[in-house]
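[C-ALPHA CELLS]
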Amino acid sequence: MFNTARKALLALLFAGLASPVFAADLPEPQVEEAPPPVYEQPVDVGGWYIRGDIDYHKSDVRGIDYMTYGIDPCNCTVIPGGKSFDYGKLKGGFSLGGGVGYKINDRLRADVTADYWFKSNFNGGTSDLVSTSTEVSKMSALLLLANAYVDIGTWHGITPYVGAGIGGARVKWDTVYDPNTAETNPGASNWRFAYALMAGASYCLTDKIILDAGYRFSHIQGGRMFEWDASSAGPGFDRGINTHEVRGGLRYQFGGNNGCAAPVVAYQPEPEPIYTK
C-alpha cells in the first residue's frame, strides 16, 4: 500500500512539471485580420450644372475693306472701287458669361454658354494719295456657343480639360468716325458664325462647387462693319475677329457625382474571427 501511494504521488509530480513544457510546444491559435475596407465612387456620375464666368480678352481684327466711289470725268458716272484700312486695332476688354450644362460621365461633359463682351475701343487708319484719316469706333458682341469637354483625369482635386465649341456671335460696331473731320459712317450689327477652342483646369472647392480657370481662343467670321454715308465712303467689312481669352469662373452641380465627392466605403459584413492551427 505504501508503494502504491508513493507511485501515485510521483506520477502527479511528474505531470505537474511536464505540463508547462508541453504547453510551450503547442502552437497558439491565431486570429486572421479582417481585410481593409473597400472604397468605391458613387455609380451616378452624371448631373446638371450651371456656370458663371468672367474674362479678359484681346481681339485682333484680321483686316478691314471698304467701298469707294469716284466720278468718271468723261461721262460723269460713278466708278465704284475698293480699299483697305492701313491698320485697325482693338484694345482689350472684359466679358461676363453664364451657361447650363450636363456632366455625362467622369470624362465627358457638355454645356451651352452665352458671353457678353463689353465695348472695346477701336483705332484704325486709312490713306490715299493726298491725305490720311484716323478712324475710331467701339465693338461689342454677344457670343453663343454649344461646347463639349473632355476631363482628362483628377489629381489632388485638380482636373485638366480640353474642349471645343461652335455657335454664333452678334457683333455690334458703334459709329465709325474721324475725330479730326466731319466724316462718319453708321456702325453695323449682325449675326456671324463662330467657333472656339478651350483648355484649362478645374479645382474642387466643395463636393458641389468647382473653380474653373482656363484659356479660350474664339474666331468670329467676317461681316459688315459700317454702312455707307454721303459724307464718306462705305460700306465697310471686317475680315473676321480672333480673340484670346483668359477666363475664370465657378460651376455648381445639382446632382450626381462631379468627381469632387469623397469616396464612400462599400458595405461589408463584419467578418467573424477565423482561428487557425
User: Anything to note?
Assistant: The chain has a mean pLDDT of 83. Helices lie at 2-25. The two ends are 45 Å apart (CA to CA).
